[in-house]
Every structure is written in structure tokens, then in C-alpha cells.
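We include this case.
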Amino acid sequence: MPLRCLDPTGRSIHSFDLSEDEWQALERENKKARHLRMPCCSALVALKRSSLKTQFFAHIARGGCKSTSETEEHRHLKWLAVMAARNHGWVAETEAMEITPSGEPWRADVLARKGKYKVAIEVQWSKQTNSETSRRQQRYRESGVRGVWLFRQSDFPITFDLPAVSIGGSLKGGFLALIPSYQDATPPSLRDRWHQVLPMNEFLDVVFRSRFQFGIPASSDATVAVRTALMPCWQPTCGAKTRILTGVEISFGPHECTLPAPVLAKHPEILRIVLNQLSENPRYSTNLSPSLESRECIGWSILRARSVLQSGQAARLPDQASPVMV
């Protein structure tokens, strides 16, 4: 349910830019002249209102158009993005279409331009695989567009190349931007697990002021704290419990970022800081690879593969925090 159509000259008309009187006048004119077209397929346009009185454009006959229908929530989030962009001097439109240098077409929910810069806001209300997200983000990158994603789902990649937040709240109560702190899926209901929670319009305001950044400010003090848990020995007759590494927490001011153990290998600098706080305990195995990931039972002193610590470091980990400069 698009918020934009084209007049006979190709000029964009956004439904939310028209007052109620202007909307009714355009509706009467279009019924007589049938002069408005959909930007996605050039089909004839009908002017409609949703159950919440939101003005939008619709296909009179969809035909072979591949565009999909949108929820009221989707339309509202697009409107918020356009308003935030315009408030900071960007020229923004909904349902914008372009083509990559390699010839692949794409469409953004909102595309904002300011000088040589272009930002796309993508509202992903339906479930989407990480591979599809990466593919679509690559199209933006090839086109010189910075893609920012608003996901209804909470399990999405957290990387420098994919600026993204999860959508919280509701249309009635107001939408929230949930900025992730964990490197894995975090349910939106667990608010304390998110790096920051703020109204969606405030988040979009930050985006178009170029203040939404990945990581923490350079040359700032951060505290890296080891997270541990007690693991029973895998030998039933032992009974010993070994404290193992489950992840690390990086604290900066009131904010925290948690890296679970499985992703630590992707952050060698943080892993090095953790290992430097541990006493070295070289171990060797004749039936496993020369350099392996392992855990060691403190009772049996037997290695078990598939841990985060590499090159035979034992997982005898105290609860401690190590201040570092990042």
C-alpha cells in the first residue's frame, strides 16, 4: 500500500503531504482523468484510506506487478523516516527505485538524498533470512547507498556493514528502536538485554544527523569483564565443576555489549585481552590437531575440544574485569 504515486509529468505525490481537502480534490480529479500512475509498474491508481484514516495509493488492477501489500505499521514507519529525513534537510521519498551498476533493480521503502550522500531506510516487517538481508544490503552498497534496517524480528546480523535495530512498541503506543548489545538473538521483551531503547522517531533523528555509529568512541575507557559459568565434568565418576568462559562484557559508561563465547574468535583483540589475564597452561594432544580449542576439567585435567580458548589454554577463569583502552 504505497504512500507515493506519480502525476503525468513524473512528479512524485506523497499521500501524507496532502491535507484532507487536497486529498478529496485529487481523488475527484483522478476519478475523472485517471491521470495518476503507480511508480512500481505504471498501473492506474486509486486513492484510499485505511481503517485508521491513513491516506495511501493502491493499484486499480495489480496485473503482473510484484509489489506486495503493506501493513498499517509498515506505512507509519516509512512516514516517520521521511519526516526525520526532511527535518534535517534531506530530500526523501517512499518506494524509491534505482538500478545497481551491474543492472539489478531494487526498491527502498524510503530513500533520502543530501548532496552526494544517499541513505535507504528499509522496514522489514516480515521474517527475512540473514542471507537475503546480506544480498539486499550488497545491492545498496553497489549503488553507493547506506542501508539502515528496521527489523520486526530480533535475530539479525550485528555488523558494521549492516546498521540495524529491532522494532519494539506498537502503532497505538508508539514504536521503539531497540539497539542490540548482544551478538545473538535477543527477544524484544527482554529490555535489559538491549544496548539502548528509545522512541523510533528519536532514533531516525539520530540517523539523519549522522550520529548512529557502530562501536564506541575511539580513545575511550572501556571495561572488559569475563563472564563464566560452572560446568560439571563430562566424566560421570569425577564430580568436579570447572568454571568455563561463556562470554565477555564490554562496558562503556552506562552501556554494555556482550559477546557470547561462540563469536569471540571473530574479535581477536578482545580475545587477546582476555587470554592475557590468564595463567598459561600449555597442553598437548597426540590424537587432536596441534592447535585446538579446548576445555579442561579441573579435577581430571583432561582436555575436551570445542571451546573458545585456543592453543591449549585451560579454562580456569576467575570472575574479573580488565580495564582497557579501545
Observations:
- The longest strand covers residues 221-232.
- The longest helix spans residues 72-87.
- The helical segments are 20-33, 72-87, 130-142, 200-207, 268-276.
